[in-house]
Design goal:
158 residues; mainly alpha; Arc Repressor Mutant, subunit A; 2 domains; two-stranded antiparallel ribbon; two-stranded antiparallel sheet; WH_DNA-bd_sf
């Protein structure tokens, strides 16, 4: 089980948006350029994010996107599910029909509960990480990089 490009790109784009929205609406063209994500792909993702009320669109000159809620009230799980990204480690997609016996009857395979539990734990984890957590991590990373480039010892950046 792994998160696909759709989920990764959606989370990345939302971090970019959250980092820059204090200056006004953020354009998808800007996110596309900074993050190396196709503009048409971002348009598809942001359509879904808007329908799930995670972002608002602003039309006209100076338009773009802003967060519809505070970053601390948006979780990674919200973003991933908004773009239709399944978080399921089971072979059967959680349907419980992962074993087909020789008699043609379907049921759960011997490891179904293991993978179902893993799926629940992944969702719980993604639901425990807010967009604000990721923004804060990114800002700290940027501060550390700037300090390194300036030749300052790392412990001086905190």
């Amino acid at each position: 089980m792994r998160l696909t490009t759709k989920g990764r790109f959606a989370v990345t784009a939302m971090i970019d948006l959250a980092l820059r929205q204090q200056s006004g609406p953020v354009t998808l063209a800007g996110i596309s350029q900074r993050q190396g994500i196709s503009l048409s792909y971002l348009e598809q993702l942001f359509g879904k994010l808007r329908r799930h009320e995670l972002v608002d669109s602003v039309r006209g000159p100076g338009g773009g996107y802003t967060l519809a809620r505070l970053a601390r009230h948006i979780t990674v799980a919200d973003i991933v599910f908004a773009v239709d990204e399944p978080v399921d480690a089971t072979q059967c997609g959680g349907k419980g029909n992962c074993k087909q016996g020789t008699n043609g009857q379907k049921g759960e395979c011997m490891t179904h509960e293991l993978w179902a539990t893993l799926s629940r734990k992944m969702v719980d984890y993604l639901d425990s990480v807010s967009l604000q957590d990721l923004v804060d991590q990114q800002r700290l990373r940027q501060l550390k990089l700037a300090a390194q480039e300036a030749g300052q010892p790392e412990e001086c950046t905190l």
